[in-house]
């Protein structure tokens, strides 16, 4: 692949968007390769993903403005559809995805980070949805996900005003979980991914599904989503071993994903 690198470190997969000449902007080819990479993840052997951008300046500087500038209405819709499909695949991937935001996360960059389960960023990161300055709305879910992740008034201020925010403000409003010096970001993201990967994979996956599906439901229905997923963990080898190890006052000798 030209624009996406994939590496596996133990149970953790690392996806790097690699188009530094355009600050990792998302054109059709990048989106196509990203989708193929996500579709190709081996869920038997991979328990968490880290998503980052190549270079020291940018995570993703948005959808590719040069490519978008000449789109017809129909092509624009198709481009938006592809982006939404890829971002939704990230959001609903059964295993957790951590965004390691190493710089600009603007437009589609902010939107792809928001499709991830957890965001960590470098102290140089910049987040924003500058689309209204280009004559368009956010097109890859920005109006929806930002308004769900941060206070709605803050989301509206950022989107209507095309106001970018720095890492410390992103942390203050809860858009990111933690801020690191750039060189510490990827190691921290990998460390968190490895910590997640140590836990019972079936249970972690059930937690992701419960949280994501439950958030779309009323509480009475949401709690049933959890009930079913809770039930589904029983009689798995990892549940039996996890509880047995506790009762025998010993550590689990590696969960098996069974
Ligand atoms: N697209 C294409 N090229 C980009 C780019 C982008 N988003 N961002 C940067 N580049 C390119 C620059 O054109 C430049 O290329 P060369 O001139 O060297 O060939 C190179 O990357 C380096 O950029 P700069 O020279 O501008 O670097 P600076 O450090 O001076 O500035 C910057 C960095 C990130 C502040 C600046 O590049 C910038 O403002 N970039 C654009 C950021 C932005 O507005 N992003 C949002 C894009 S809009 C939809 C689907 C999707 C979307 C909307 C609708 N539907 C179809 C419904 C999403 C929209 C967006 O994401």
From TrEMBL:
Keyword terms of this UniProt record: Isomerase, Lyase
Transmembrane portions of the chain: none
Statement: the UniProt record of this protein carries the keyword Lyase: yes
Domain of life of the native organism: Bacteria
Any Pfam family hit: ECH_1
Record GO biological process: fatty acid beta-oxidation
Molecular-function GO terms, alphabetical: hydro-lyase activity; isomerase activity
CDD domains: crotonase-like
Recorded family membership: Belongs to the enoyl-CoA hydratase/isomerase family.
PANTHER family in the cross-refs: ENOYL-COA HYDRATASE, MITOCHONDRIAL, ENOYL-COA HYDRATASE-RELATED
The protein's name in its UniProt record: Enoyl-CoA hydratase/isomerase family protein
Protein's organism: Fusobacterium hominis
């Amino acid at each position: 692949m030209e624009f996406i690198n994939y590496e596996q470190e133990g149970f953790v997969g690392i996806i790097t968007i690699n188009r530094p000449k355009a600050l990792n902007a998302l054109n059709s080819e990048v989106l196509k390769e990203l989708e193929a990479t996500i579709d190709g993840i081996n869920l038997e052997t991979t328990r968490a993903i880290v998503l980052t951008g190549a270079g020291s300046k940018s995570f993703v500087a948005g959808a590719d403005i040069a490519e978008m500038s000449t789109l017809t209405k129909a092509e624009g819709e198709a481009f938006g559809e592809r982006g939404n499909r890829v971002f939704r695949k990230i959001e609903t991937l059964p295993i957790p995805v951590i965004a390691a935001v190493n710089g600009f996360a603007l437009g589609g960059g902010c939107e792809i980070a928001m499709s991830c389960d957890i965001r960590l960023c470098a102290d140089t990161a910049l987040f924003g949805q500058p689309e209204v300055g280009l004559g368009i709305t956010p097109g890859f879910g920005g109006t929806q996900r930002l308004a769900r992740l941060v206070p709605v008034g803050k989301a509206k201020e950022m989107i209507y005003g095309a106001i970018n925010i720095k890492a410390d403000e992103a942390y203050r409003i809860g858009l990111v979980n933690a801020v690191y010096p750039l060189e510490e970001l990827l190691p921290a993201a990998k460390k968190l991914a490895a910590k997640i990967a140590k836990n019972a994979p079936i249970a972690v996956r059930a937690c992701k599904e419960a949280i994501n599906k439950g958030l779309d439901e009323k509480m009475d229905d949401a709690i049933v989503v959890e009930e079913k997923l809770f039930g589904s963990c029983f009689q798995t080898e990892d549940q039996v071993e996890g509880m047995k190890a506790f009762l025998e006052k010993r550590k689990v000798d590696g969960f098996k994903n069974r």
